[in-house]
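ok trying again, last paste got cut off:
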Amino acid sequence: MEKFSKWRDSGTGIQPFLQPVPARSQQEGIRRVFDGVKNYLVGPLIAAARLVALGVVAVLDTVTAAVGSLIVVPRIRRGWMKCTRALWSRLALLVMGFYWIDAKTVSLQKGRRSAKDESRSKDAGVQSGDIIVANHVSYIDILYLVAKHNPVFVEIDNASTYAKPISMWEALKSPARQTPALLQAKEARPLKSITEEARLKHLGPVVVFPENATTNGRALLQLLPVFEEVGNLDEKSAVHVMAFKYPFQSFSPAYSVGSQLAHLFGVCCQMYNSLNVRVLERDEAPQIKESAMFCDEDAEPVDLDESVKEKLVQLSRLRITKLTAMDKRDFLAFYYKRAKGYRTTI
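nice, full thing came through this time. structure:
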């Protein structure tokens, strides 16, 4: 759309914020008839039933979380929360039509076996206090991560790159609102303090979305230099690189703008939905102990931010734009201003 051309990346020609639509060739003939039946007859009925089921799942999660808060022993509480949250999150994905998720651990090095089932990979060794770095495409990313790891989510300050822990529910709703330009000083903490707390209290790994905003899945935004700040470096934290992609034919589960509830309804109208997850082999991921601050004197230090950027681009097979989270913030302000009377949150 011409009115949004300001947010089309000049280098790649990609507009990473508008909701993706299928290619014109996919909308011809029988496909249009099928989509009409799905969108106006069968789909709404299926979506209505699914939304009711999701409401039940949300209530069950609230109840089990309240029970878990009464458990005194940290390890037992963590085990309870991980098991129940994994159950309800996977059930939510199933209800939404994600019957099977294509999750693989892959190697970027030529000559090695290219992929292994995730359940058999070293990714199973993700520990509390580790850092998961991933691109951010949809609130569905959050459900997958909770089902797999029940992690700690953070919101990043765009200036200091310090972070603030947020709840699962806040993380689910965050794509629907504008990215805060800055966090309040009293809320922003060095990432190291968050990973240390997660390790000590067995809270799970810490998820960092360095783009600090969602895209439509067609490109990456500029990544915040999270590891440039010394206060964010925790030598004991292993880094895990992950990439999300949502193949689709008529409606994309990727969510970057618009009503989140309407988008969820559209996702639930689909007969099924697809999610591809790629996790980089553990020994190929950049590690904090290899940075200039911790590496041996005779070793070549690794630029962690540049290495993370390189690995994420290769893993996701997406091009990186010159646009940032602040551009996404400006885009949303313009988009919602044009949509008169539209509320930016659910």
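cool. The CA atoms of residues 85 and 151 lie 10 Å apart. Confidence is low (pLDDT under 50) at residues 116-124.
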